[in-house]
Design brief:
- The protein is an alpha/beta fold.
- Helices cover about 30% and strands about 25% of the residues.
- The protein is built from 11 helices and 18 strands.
- The strands form 4 sheets. Strands 5-4-13-14-15-12-16 form a 7-stranded mixed β-sheet, sandwiched between helices.
- It is globular.
- The structure holds flavin-adenine dinucleotide.
- The site of flavin-adenine dinucleotide has 32 residues, from helix 1, strand 3, strand 8, strand 12 and helix 8.
Length: about 425
């Protein structure tokens, strides 16, 4: 790169922070602008599959995460009515051997803190909190184009200038709204809500403390739980089909929710005792309506480009939202490193690689949700099929996700 590139990133979530690290490695000067006054303890558990942990390893943050992460031994898929195993996918050391990096479970806040610490250690990255990014104007003078970013900094209007603006501002990205993607480009409620809870280990049933990821399948509902924070907490996600009339939160990470556990328990009537023990142990629930957007044919306008949930908010049924944001971050860094500072070329390279990959995962996540929530004869067929899949067959089915290699652009192989 001949001149130091000035990159502005809106949003210091998992995507924005990882992008800052990845871009700083190319020698760019990065300014991260985050609306929240402080990066506080928000969110819940995340599964970090090897496609994501591989990149964090390269960026040197995986070791720092080690004290707070766990590597589940197995993914157990269980039948709601009696808890019987339908399938088991071995993970643990096998994940490392097969995909070159561990499959981990973490608390989002721990990952965010570790990434923020790594950013603070880089002289090329400046993180400014309490800064709301309001909009942008692209400016072209001769050969050179730049971007002027309007902000509200601790309540006062101001401007920051750079060569590129990366919108990592999440599902309700206000920068995406300025990209001219049309009036229909709004978040769409999926008809499902995720109820999330964190159970302190001391209050959790012993079965929930095993270092494994449990996925329970029932009619129109599923339940996921695994221990996080080195075993101090159990993360629980209960997903139900729900007409939902609640508060349409603009800040999903921070707003408390109006979650009535009695309603949730009714939705899990007929489920095995073990599942109810876990639901009963939750001290408090947060209710997260799950949204998607239509898939955008482009993610950029001039020198402004989307990433993470701002580009592709997906349903969480393959646990890949943060993983994709991390992949985006790596791809941005690589595109800018190889384009020699040519901004538009770098953005094009990034879009060409990432749009097919993210749309494949979005589609597969949606299908996975339909499979998880089958009922009646369809569920019987699904269960019979799952019981026949060997552990190796399970691993092969996720190779295209977990074994994703940088720049591979590999197309999806269909899930069952
Ligand atoms: C129930 C559930 C379970 C999930 N489980 C998993 C999982 O197991 N594995 C996985 O990989 N993913 C999972 N995900 C998805 C994952 O949480 C998201 O995809 C990921 O966090 C997106 O990261 P992001 O950085 O793109 O956006 P966000 O985390 O939403 O970050 C956006 C940031 O931008 C800031 N911001 C917004 N607007 C502005 C503005 N105007 N100016 C400045 N800053 C702004 C916000 O404050 C925030 O800090 C799950 C999601 C849900 C709902």
């Amino acid at each position: 790169m001949s001149e130091t590139l000035k990159i502005i990133i809106s949003g210091a979530g998992i995507g924005g922070l990882t992008a800052a690290l990845s871009l700083a490695r190319t020698g760019a000067q990065v300014t991260l602008l985050e609306r929240a006054p402080v990066l506080e303890e928000v969110g819940a558990g995340l599964q970090l599959s090897p496609n994501a942990s591989n990149i964090l390893q390269d960026l040197g943050v995986l070791d720092r995460l080690a004290p707070w992460s766990l590597a589940p031994e197995v993914l157990r898929i269980r039948r709601a009515r009696d808890g019987a195993d339908l399938a088991r996918m071995p993970l643990g050391p096998l994940a490392d051997a097969r995909w070159g990096a561990p499959h981990l479970v973490v608390h989002r806040a721990d990952l965010q803190r570790v990434l923020a610490e790594a950013c603070a250690a880089s002289p090329l990255i400046t993180l400014r909190t309490d800064v709301d990014v309001l909009g942008f104007a692209s400016v072209t003078e001769g050969e050179r184009s730049s971007v002027q970013v309007g902000i509200r900094d601790t309540g006062k209007h101001a401007r920051v200038d750079g060569d590129v603006l990366i919108a990592a501002d999440g599902l309700r990205s206000n920068l995406r709204e300025r990209l001219g993607l049309g009036l229909a480009d709004t978040p769409i409620y999926s008809g499902r809500t995720a109820w999330r809870a964190l159970i302190p280990a001391a209050a959790a049933p012993a079965s929930a403390l095993r270092v494994e990821t449990n996925l329970w399948l029932g009619a129109k509902a599923h339940l996921v739980h695994y221990p996080i924070r080195a075993g101090d907490l159990v993360n629980v996600v209960a997903v139900i089909e729900d007409p939902w009339r609640g508060n349409d939160s603009t800040d999903i990470w921070r707003d408390p929710a109006d979650a009535d556990p009695k309603y949730l328990k009714r939705m899990f009537g007929g489920w095995a005792r073990d599942a109810h023990d876990i639901l009963d142990a939750a001290p408090q629930w947060r209710r997260w309506p799950l949204f998607e957007r239509r898939f955008a044919p482009r993610w950029s306008l001039d020198n402004v480009v989307l990433m993470g949930d701002a580009a592709h908010p997906i349903l969480p049924f393959l646990a890949q939202g943060a993983g994709l944001a991390i992949e985006d971050a790596e791809a941005l860094g690589r595109a800018f490193a190889t384009s020699g500072g040519a901004v538009r070329a770098a953005i094009k390279m990034y879009e060409n690689e990432r749009i097919p990959r993210a749309s494949d995962i979005a589609l597969a996540s949606r299908r996975q949700g339909a499979i998880y929530h089958m009922s009646g004869p369809m569920a019987l067929v699904r269960d019979a099929f799952m019981r026949r899949v060997t552990p190796d067959g399970m691993l092969r089915r996720v190779d295209w996700i977990y074994g994703y290699r940088k720049g591979a652009g590999a197309r999806r192989r269909l899930l069952p």
